[in-house]
Amino acid sequence: MFAHNFRYTLKYLLKNRMLIFWTYAFPVILGLLFYLAFSNIEKDEKLQVIPIALVKEEAGQAAGQGENPAGEILEETVKSLSKENDPDRLFDMEYVTESKAKKLLDQDKIRGYLLLGKEPQVVVRENGTEQTIFQQVISQILQQARLSQAVTDSPAMQKALSGISSPEEARERAEKVLEGLKQENPNIQDRSGDHLGYTVIEYYTLIAMACLYSATIGMYAVNSMLANMSRKGMRISVSPAGKGRLIFSGVCASYVVQLLGLGILFAFLVFGLKVDFGRQILPVLFLALTGSFCGLCVGIAVGALVKASENTKIGVIISVTMLGCFLSGMMGITMKYLVDKNIPLLNRINPAAMITDGFYALYYYDTLNRYWLNIGSLLLFSLLMILLSVWSLKRQTYKSL
Amino acid sequence: MLILKTYFQVLKKYSGVVILFTAILLGFACFNFKTKDNAVGFSASRPDIYVFGEEEETGLSALLRDYLEEYANIRKPVLKDGGSGGDPQEDEAVEDALFYRDVAMIIRIPEGFGSDFLDGKRPALAVRSTKDAEASYVEMQLERFLETAGTLQQAGYSEKELIKRAREILWETVPATAAGSMDSEALSGATFYYNFANYSLLAGCVYAIAMILSSFRGKQIHRRTVVSGMNYRILNRRLLLANSLFTLLLWGLYVLISMVLIKDVMFTKHGLCYMANSFVFACCALSVGFLIGNLVPGKEALSGVINVVALGSSFLCGAFVPVQWLPEGVLKAAHLLPSYWFIQNNELIRKMETVDAASIKPLLINGAVILLFAALFVALTNLLERNSRRRRA
Fold first, then answer.
1. Tens of pLDDT along B180-235?
2. Nearest CA in chain A to B22
3. Tens of pLDDT along A129-153?
4. Which one of A38, A339, B30, B53 is least enclosed by Cβ atoms within 10 Å?
5. Residue B263: what pLDDT?
6. Which residue of A has its CA nearest to B106?
7. Which has the closest alpha carbon to A91: A74, A72, A68?
8. Are B327 and A135 inside 8 Å of each other by CB?
9. Average confidence (pLDDT) over A98-111
10. Nearest residue in B to A45, CA atom
């Protein structure tokens, strides 16, 4: 009986075009959309060459009037920071008039411009990191001049120059002191980990969604056995076949269909889109299997508990799954973090967040504590769904069929 | 009246999903909008960072902390284990904050940093960063501090004098002015909201309209309508009216939400532009709903098509990801979708300094493109309907 029902449930599920779309095609389509939309994010968030302009004369001021002695240093340094083939290039600079600079700023073609007047001034259009870096780099060039002055006034210099009257000798001594100052190389040890690519979260939510879409498969399997949902269900209800065994074989067949879909998605993500799942492939697979099982249990629970048409049940499953995935970061990567930080309980009961967090823990953390916590939560959630389904299915009686 | 009443009765059945799309928009907006002061004029970016170090910092260590505080927000992490035992740097709350870009950098000032530095040693500052532009900025400031303090130490300054000189040098900044007179933060918030509304408006309108049309055009209902005295032209006109009413209500709801959440912008001329732009897009969403409702047979297939259309155009046109981060090829392809023109308009409104005839000209052009899309969808729907009527006849 088990093998018979298993085989026919498998056939029934694989012939359902809607189900094939939601479990096999939709996650792959969404994965492709993610790839198209997010492939540039991590590259673009790094510091880019900042487009700026340099205005040598203020409006209404003739060239050479009221020039700042630091202006030349500023100009030369900005020029050297704008060298085209330099790997440390910071700016893309062009010389323009003030009116042209204003125009370029309005057109968003430059982040800001530097007015090299009596008092150097930075003009930007709006606040932002690039604008701030521009202002700070200009400040640092001026700070360098002050630092040189501080070195000239320093005790080491005073000591070296004490008792010397000849200007030439003084200059020689001063140069010696300056040569004696070692080049300062800031000792900053970067201990950042390798796994900082946060767009992977999107793909993790996608797997979470695919796992939870197995709920539709579970729901179809249960629905086909419910007497109030289909003629087949009526026949099963009046047959002497053990319902427990029928449901179990149906669930097993559903699980096989789901794993097939998950396999397609994994193959697409790993080989097609080159998504990094960290180094531990077995825990990754185990989490996907547990997540799919959890999704299946949700489907069985919806099939058994929701007294409505098949379409409404699908609507409930898709809506709940979409909401869960939204909260776990599908439509904005930081959403999961914001929910975790502000309403942690919401993600504790959200299976999509448990699956996403499990993958994240595997990718980012060296230990498996958080991963096992998520596996435990998923199994607990699944158990709760099974208990609710059993409770509901056991209570079902029909006055007439 | 009968059709209108029936329409809203059927709508009730699908209201759950429309409420869900609205809740997603609301959730997204509430989580992402931070209350900020009016930000007219230039204010430098202050990345969030965590700094761990000695409990009581003095001398050079204290100066470093002061300096970092000047250019960044030093935040205190709320540790998950409540701070009981273990290295706070390895707490999950700290690790998560770095991964999700809540902080740009974690800096550890080693014990005895100040005294070692003044002795001529150069103790290492251990950092972990997100490697993004903000992290580069903090690193730039750290390097500047260490270079300045190191040079002053080599020049023989005593601790007290070094701190005084370093303060004079490092705290000096070139004045910066913002040419824009608008509150750029508030405008960015409004753009963010209306860009995301692309998804909710499109998915909500298309889902409800297509599902309801599908109900009205079901085989049994259609046959009953044909044998009744109802003229199909009147039926179509009333359905159009009901759908338009629903679209207007949904658009009104989203505008109302924006008025509550971003009132600083919504009651200005810029706000009016956002409203008008979203209204034009809502009209287009109405036509997309009509087209999909007529094109796709069966309610089961409808939800799949709607999800692909709404999510697809939202991802490809920059509703979820800032437009400037989208690859060029994707943006070129997005020109074929009305969402692209809607989002482009939102971005234009954000950058608009003043609202006058010259500045709204590109908005009008983009709006016209959206309306052209709507006209195209309506024409396609009519064509499809005519063909299907002929087939049935």
1. 666 777 888 899 899 999 999 999 898 888 888 888 877 788 788 778 877 777 88
2. A323
3. 889 999 999 999 888 888 888 888 8
4. B30
5. 85
6. A192
7. A74
8. no
9. 87
10. B132
Using the beta-carbon criterion (under 8 Å), do A150 and B102 form an inter-chain contact?
no
B35 contacts chain A (CB < 8 A): no
Phi, psi for A124 (deg, rounded to 5): -125, 170
The CATH number fitting domain A48-149, selected from 3.40.50.300, 3.40.190.10, 1.10.1740.110, 3.30.300.30: 3.40.190.10
Interchain proximity B102–A337, CB inside 8 Å: yes
Compute the distance between CA of residue A376 and CA of residue A331 in angstroms, rounded to an integer. Answer: 26
Q: Please name the helix (run of DSSP H) or strand (run of DSSP E) that holds residue A51, with its range, or none.
A: strand A50-55
Nearest by CB to B176, which of A135, A186, A198? Answer: A135
Interchain contact, A37 vs B176, CB within 8 Å: no
- Domain locations along chain B: 2-37+183-392, 48-170
Cα-based distances in Å from A237 to A244, A390, B145, B212: 12, 16, 79, 34
Handedness of CA A390, A391, A392, A396 (dihedral sign): positive
- DSSP summary character for residue B109: P
Q: Is A276 on the interface with B (CB under 8 A)?
A: no
- The span from the CA of A26 to the CA of B304, in Å, is 8
- The count of CB pairs under 8 A between chains A and B is 266
CA B272 to chain centre: 19
Q: How far apart are CA A33 and CA B158, in angstroms?
A: 60
Q: What is the pLDDT of residue B85?
A: 55
Q: What residues does B177 pair with on adjacent strands?
A: A123
Q: What is the mean pLDDT of residues A329-343?
A: 84
Beta carbons of B28 and A332 less than 8 Å apart: yes
Report the C-alpha gap between A216 and A298 in whole angstroms: 9
Would you state the CATH architecture of domain B48-170?
3-Layer(aba) Sandwich (3.40)
Residue partners of A397: CB distance under 8 A and separation at least 6: none
DSSP string for A366-378: SSSHHHHHHHHHH
Spatial contact of B117 and A187, defined as CB atoms under 8 Å apart? no
Helices (H), A52-199: 69-80, 98-106, 129-152, 155-161, 167-180
d(CA B246, CA B256): 15
Virtual CA dihedral for B153, B154, B155, B156, nearest 10 degrees? Answer: 60
Residue B177: phi and psi, rounded to 5, are -125, 150
Distance between the two ends of chain A, CA-based, in angstroms? 24
Residues in chain A: 401
**How is chain A split into domains, by residue range?**
2-41+198-395, 48-149
Q: Which chain A residues are closer than 8 Å to B199 by Cβ?
A: 331
What single-letter DSSP state applies at residue A126?
Answer: S
Cβ-nearest to B168 among A126, A146, A336? A146
CB < 8 Å from B in window 175-194 of A: 180-182, 184-193
| Contacting B residues, span 246-285, partner chain A, CB-CB under 8 Å | none
ipTM above 0.85? Answer: no
Res A121: pLDDT: 87
Residues 6+ apart with CB under 8 A from A339: A327, A328, A346, A347, A353, B31
For residue A192, list chain B residues with Cβ-Cβ distance below 8 A: 127-131
* Token pair recorded at residue B322: 């800032």
Q: With CB atoms and an 8 Å threshold, state whether A333 touches B100.
A: yes
Q: Of the candidates B129, B140, B169, which has its C-beta nearest A150's C-beta? A: B169
| B36 CB-near residues (< 8 Å, 6+ apart) | B185, B186
- Expressed in percent and rounded to 5, the helix, strand and coil fractions of chain B are 70, 5, 25
Name the residue among A18, A185, A188 with its Cβ closest to that of B142. Answer: A188
